[in-house]
Write a structure and sequence with these properties.
Number of helices of chain A: 6
Radius of gyration of chain A: 19 Å
CATH class of chain A: Mainly Alpha
Shape of chain A: globular
Shape of chain B: elongated
Distance between the termini of chain B: 84 Å
Number of strands of chain A: 2
Largest sheet of chain A: 2 strands, antiparallel
Largest sheet of chain B: none
Strand content of chain A: 5-15%
Strand order of the largest sheet of chain A: 1-2
Structural class of chain B: mainly alpha
Largest interface: A-B, 18 and 15 residues
Distance between the termini of chain A: 51 Å
Oligomer: heterodimer
Number of helices of chain B: 12
Number of domains of chain A: 1
Chain lengths: 118, 198
């Protein structure tokens, strides 16, 4: 009886913890994302709400809204140097985003989540 | 009767003004010439010593902050092994401007003594102001330290990506300077900095 009661409390605690952790994992650090975007000159070709050489982040978010692979797709886009299409039709390798420490995927993921949240 | 003796300075000045009766003009000129070379050599060697990365990173204020950031950039490590050290970007090459910069930089000793940026927090609080001074200095001299190595004319349209090449050529036509667009390339941008919308 006592054991089952303990198990019940533990289960609730674990559930709360899991929910908290999952919320924390989902929460986007806006400041960190903006700083990384600025440091990598993303804003030279992109803007949050205006098309420049690259599409507005709002437009990107809209394009990928509801798509399950959105996050991994964008991460590949900014980490592999794949070709990006420019307004005049020509294609060019997209800049590979650099982090400090190098290749910190948590920072990249946060940046992508920030873009998708626009 | 005036018994007062001239002061020490006056006596030294009188000695200096009196022609030498003991040494020949050739001897005096030779000593002056050699002393001049020694002084000049020592002065420039000393000034050059303050241009090395070891000197710049000798204090923790630079070593623990901007130096760590710079080490992750292309100006520190790159494919071809050409490195731009602190002074290549922050100190003019020509003697006159170098001396002016060094004289102004001597104020940093005051900053060191008063501990104006002796903690990471203090440094971050002043980063925008300090970066602003440097951007202003670079802009005033048309980014000469960048242009010591980079030039619009040496950019190849075949080797440079199309978009940056177009932007560079437009910047050249608009009379822009490197620092107008390339801020924070070797160090982190200040958190207060806002990228101007082009």
């Amino acid at each position: 009886m006592r054991i089952s009661k303990l198990s019940g409390s533990t289960a609730i605690a674990v559930a709360i913890l899991a929910a908290t952790l999952s919320t924390a994992a989902r929460a986007v650090d806006d400041d960190a994302a903006k700083k990384l975007a600025q440091q990598n000159n993303c804003l030279k070709c992109h803007s949050v709400d205006k098309d420049k050489d690259g599409p507005a982040f709002k437009k990107v978010a809209q394009k990928y809204k509801g798509k399950a692979d959105a996050e991994s797709r964008l991460m590949t886009h900014i980490m592999s140097g794949e070709k990006a299409k420019f307004p005049d039709g020509h294609e060019e390798e997209h800049k590979i985003v650099k982090t400090s420490p190098a290749k910190d995927m948590a920072q990249i993921k946060n940046l992508v989540q920030w873009v998708l949240a626009q | 009767m005036d018994n007062s003796k001239p002061g020490r300075l006056k006596r030294i000045w009188a000695i200096l003004k009196t022609p030498s009766a003991k040494y020949s003009l050739l001897a005096l000129l030779s000593v002056g010439f050699v002393s001049g070379i020694l002084f000049w050599g020592a002065f420039n060697t000393g000034m050059e010593a303050t241009n090395t990365m070891e000197f710049c990173t000798g204090c923790h204020e630079m070593r623990d902050t901007v130096y760590q950031e710079y080490k992750e950039t292309i100006h520190y490590s790159n494919r071809t092994g050409v490195r731009a050290v602190c002074s290549d970007c922050h100190v003019p090459k020509d003697w006159t401007h170098k001396l002016i910069r060094k004289t102004k930089a001597s104020m940093e000793i005051w900053g060191k003594l008063t501990g104006s940026i002796d903690t990471k927090e203090k440094f971050e609080a002043k980063r925008m102001e300090l970066a602003g001074h440097e951007w202003e200095r670079m802009k005033a001299r048309d980014s000469i330290e960048c242009r010591n190595c980079h030039s619009f004319d040496a950019m190849s349209p075949e080797l440079q990506k199309q978009t940056p090449y177009k932007k560079h050529m437009k910047a050249k036509a608009d009379g822009k300077s490197c620092i107008d667009c390339h801020k924070g390339i070797a160090h982190q941008l200040p958190k207060e900095y806002v990228e101007p919308d082009e």
